Amino acid sequence: MGRFVFKLPDVGEGTAEAELVGWHVKVGDVVAEDQIVADVMTDKATVEITAPVSGKVVALHGEPGAMVPVRGPLVEFEVEGAGNADDAPTPAAPAVAKPDPAPVVAEAPKVETPAAPAVEAPTSGNYVFKLPDVGEGTAEAELVGWHVKVGDAVEEDQIIADIMTDKATVEITSPVAGTVVALYGEPGKSVPVGGPLVAFDVEGRGNVSTPVAAPKPAPKSAENATTASAATSTTRSATSVTAPSKPVPALTGRAPGERPSASPAVRNRARDLGVDLTFVPGSGPAGRITHEDLDGFIARGGSQPASAPSGGSTYAKAQGTTEVKIIGLRRKIAEKMAESVRRIPHITYVEEIDMTAVEELRAHLNATKSKDQPKLNVLPFIARAIVVALRDQPQINATYDDEAGVLTQHAPVHLGIAAQTPNGLMVPVVRHAEARDPYDTALEIARVSGAAKDGSAKREELSGSTITITSLGTLGGVVHTPIINHPEVAIVGPNKIAERVVVKDGQMVVRKMMNLSSSFDHRIVDGHDAAVFVQRIKGLLENPATLWMG
After folding, report:
1. Residue 252's beta-bridge partner residues?
2. Of 62-66, 168-172, 440-444, 504-508, where does mean pLDDT reach its minimum?
3. Most confidently modeled range among 164-173, 317-326, 353-362
4. Pairwise CA distance, residues 449 & 419, whole Å
5. What is the CATH number of domain 329-546?
6. Are strands 36-42 and 45-50 parallel, antiparallel or unpaired?
7. Where are the domains of the chain?
8. Residue 135: predicted pLDDT
């Protein structure tokens, strides 16, 4: 028997500790592998922690309500085999020895016989690490990427993989020290919770009795490697065949095959111009190629690479393709967009709005604001116009469960703000937009958008919107067709504000105009209702004094 110390894994919230909510086992209990042993809480997510091995509980570290450090001991098990911790011999050994008299000494050589298995135990074993439940309540998670490869020696608690559940990327750490013998899954594929993730060769017996075979994708790697080597060989052959047809001119002063000396700036410029520096003589120290050398070479008509036809372009031809696998959050966004278009019959309505009065009011408010008030852009005014317009059409401030056939109309306006982030498009939520003045709205938009961009947004800040604004700011264009944020039934998309000549009261005047592009779920919102809603927004924005009159 051995002792296995199970340490609290990193459950993906980016914290150094978690609160122990409760135990599902007690000392003396016999548990099976993957059995739930405890609940911990990180931020506002409760995570079920499962046993990585089968065995008997001999120690519990921590009481409910206490904070447990990540990678700190959580549960200790008595397991078959050597375990992962040094354990003193159990008292059972001397108890067995007591009935035996002095002949025990005579049988000392026989004592060496059981010593042989003791030497075999720590030699080598197989340990299969299964994907733990990381608290999202899903049956599977997407494998984003590996931090290790087959053959790597890893330490306990070393990061081995990244997985994604919903919109959270979680780092998975190794529960043991050993050598990686198999990786289950490829980036972009889904791995079931409780399914094998990594197999290790470890000291001791491990947790499986049979040798671990590499998964099927492993041969593909070998094939790819063979293909890659073949491609490399082909490339080298092609290069070696082609190279002699381009002898280096003697005027360069460089031996054949010698790499020309030049600064990064010169190399970048030559690359843009399609110039092979191999053929450019250098006048700098040690034959270094300068900008003047490059200019002189081009002036002499030598700017074309040897492969370019005479009289052709001075720019090099681009070759090859690049395949980018869509995984992680980018794939989640793609799937959600496809689902929205597939399930929702969109109707898009575009209206032209005179924003001159709003811009004048905005300029006045920004000029007279106090130091603690934010500078206003146009979004707080559009948000307020949406809030007021929804009072007459509550069916637009709604979410539609098309599978159950239930439309839920919401009294509060939880305004989604489509935001471009380094990780892709996200929709942080300004809650209770109906209760906010323009300054408070501006502050909250900036806060939730900033949190989404820097990755600090909480799960509840990225869900629960009832209607969405999507804006490209100064890149807003003239018109666009926004895609509804499912399960909402409407989305409003302001375009850029630009000065245009319009006819007002029979006179041609220059006004600040903006197109408002909006899409609606045609199953819920008729074309007439969509037009009434947008026209109401138009009237409010063209008369901004009415925005906060009730």
Report:
1. none
2. 168-172
3. 353-362
4. 6
5. 3.30.559.10
6. antiparallel
7. 2-202, 249-325, 329-546
8. 62
Cis ω for the linkage preceding 487 (within 30 of 0): yes
16 closest CA partner among 212, 191, 157, 123: 157
What are 343-402's pLDDT values in tens digits?
999 999 999 999 999 999 999 999 999 999 999 999 999 999 999 999 999 999 999 999
220 phi and psi, to 5 degrees? -60, -35
List pLDDT tens digits, range 505-540: 899 999 999 999 999 999 999 999 999 999 999 999
Please tell me which residue in 100, 437, 454, 526 is annotated as part of the active site. Answer: 526
Token reading at 260: 């020309």
Distances in Å between the Cα of 157 and the Cα atoms of 72, 78, 166, 174, 205 are 10, 21, 24, 5, 20
Second CATH level (architecture) for the domain 2-202: Beta Barrel (2.40)
3-state secondary structure of 547: coil
522 a catalytic residue: yes
Options 152, 410, 522, 529, the catalytic residue: 522
Local structure of 209: helix, strand or coil: coil
Distance CA(10)–CA(13), nearest Å, equals 8
pLDDT at 58: 92
Closest CA to 245 of 332, 337, 160, 307: 307
| Measured distance CA(368)–CA(390) in Å, rounded | 30
Catalytic status, residue 100: no
Which tokens sit at 58?
């001999």
Predicted confidence at residue 416, as pLDDT, reads 96
Distance, in Å, from the CA atom of 389 to the CA atom of 378, rounded to the nearest integer, reads 17
Q: Span 249-325: which CATH code? A: 4.10.320.10
Write the burial class of residue 527 (CB in 10 Å: 0-12 exposed, 13-18 middle, 19+ buried).
Answer: exposed
Closest C-alpha among 137, 130, 210, 216 to residue 176: 130
Q: Which two tokens stand for residue 156?
A: 């306990």
